[in-house]
Amino acid sequence: MRKIFRQIYVQVLIAIVAGALLGHYFPNAGQSVAPLSTAFIKLVKMVTAPLIFVTIVLGAKEMGGAGALGRIGGKSIILFELTTTIALLIGLWAVNTIQPGVGMNLTPSSIDASVLNGYERSLHASSGGVMGFLLGIIPDSAVSAFANADMLQVVLFSTLFAIGLSHSGKTGETAYKFFEGVGSALFGIVRIVMRLAPIGAFGAMAYAVGKFGFGTMNSLFMLLVTVYAATLAYIVLILGGICLMCDVSLWRLLKYIRGEILLVIATVSSEAAFPQLVKKLEALGCPTGVVGIVMPMGYTFNLAGTCVAQVICAVFIAQAFGIQLSVAEQAVLVGISMLTSRGMAGVAGASFICLLATLAAFKHIPIEGAAIVLGVDRFIAEIRATTNMIGNAVATVAVAHWERQRDDVCMRETLGMPPKAVTR
């Protein structure tokens, strides 16, 4: 029994239940423990940027330098772009089929849009068109990329540094040994921080239930049903299909990373599970080089969970206002969603700001309508972040398989899959 309670996922699950009970029966007390979650997430984010830097640099070295970095990174980006596009189409199909907003008969004047003021300021501060987005990828300095925790900038600098170091010859060996030591120290910090995961999960869940209450989910229940149904369909059909092609069980993989899934659900931050997920994928049989390249790419380019919820919310708002969107208009909406999701990478509160940016660019849907979604955005964010995290794990396993670098014997043993039959 003691061994079970030592498992991190069991501790997190207990913390989630305890937090929910505290928030439900003592709302004020639940909201007051929010700093526990904030502190935990800040501790994780403290090491995420340098950890991404080290994993990319060491990953490129292990896989053979700049050529492997470009090949594996290219495969990752193509996979993420393809799955994100499919996720958007699934979301579009789901919202048109279920039609959660039909019959609400809202008008712009009936919406209190004042709640959007803070988000709109962030939107204007982060907007700058395609050129602004491209220029925003380039940090003012290497230090500023890490100081601002801008993942796009961190990935760019890390990639360029890895390429430069790969051409340094024997003189670079000393640097590689240094970064191996730094990586070991960073994961040592992670081991310490992860002991606090149940406390962070407790604080996050107590705050969410204390502030919003269980009843909040009833107000826009059909929207939540649509988002969750579409996202689960994406996980089962698309990610499950990728796993099937790569000879791995999606169900067993999800069971293996259940602790990280619970942590993301509680904290609504896929970054919270990043360090621990890296180590778990390496233990699964994926080489450090592949994990070190694919995972950082995923936290920058994999926005499937974000996009499927974004397009559903946009069409839901149109339905709520009685706006009929043609097939061509919905196709444009999908294209804009893909662009805005890229442009908001690294922005605080990015997912909801993505929705505002999409509505502002599309112009056929009143941006005021986003206010009706804000009340349940926290519950949408749970499945959104979880889907992105699962997608990163599946992509890493898949790319390792395509690179013929995955230790399938280790993977099958770790996941409890039967040994692969030997063909003669």
Task: For this entry, give a set of tags.
424 residues; Proton glutamate symport protein; 77% helix
Outline the secondary-structure elements.
Layout: H1 2-5, H2 8-25, H3 27-32, H4 34-63, H5 66-98, H6 117-126, H7 129-137, H8 142-147, H9 151-166, H10 172-194, H11 197-212, H12 216-219, H13 221-245, H14 250-256, H15 258-267, H16 274-283, H17 288-301, H18 304-320, H19 327-343, H20 350-362, H21 370-374, H22 377-402, H23 408-415
Report what the structure shows.
The chain has 424 residues and is an all-alpha fold. The protein has one domain: Sodium:dicarboxylate symporter (Proton glutamate symport protein, Orthogonal Bundle), CATH 1.10.3860. 77% of the residues lie in helices and 0% in strands. α13 runs parallel beside α22. The longest helix is centred in the first third of the chain and has 33 residues, at 66-98. Residues 122-126 and 343-349 have low confidence and may be disordered.
Q: Give the domain tally.
A: 1
- The CATH topology name reads Proton glutamate symport protein
CATH class membership = Mainly Alpha
The succession of helices and strands, N to C, reads HHHHHHHHHHHHHHHHHHHHHHH
Helix content: over 70%
Total helical elements: 23
User: What is the fourth-level CATH superfamily?
Assistant: Sodium:dicarboxylate symporter
Arithmetic mean of pLDDT: 79
Helix/strand-derived class?
mainly alpha
Question: What's the assembly state of these chains?
Answer: single chain
CATH architecture annotation? Orthogonal Bundle
Radius of gyration: 22 Å
Sheet-strand content, in percent, reads under 5%
Tell me, briefly, the overall form. globular
Q: What is the rounded distance between the termini?
A: 45 Å
Report the biggest beta sheet as strand number plus sense, adding barrel if it closes: none
Number of strands: 0
Poorly predicted regions are 122-126, 343-349
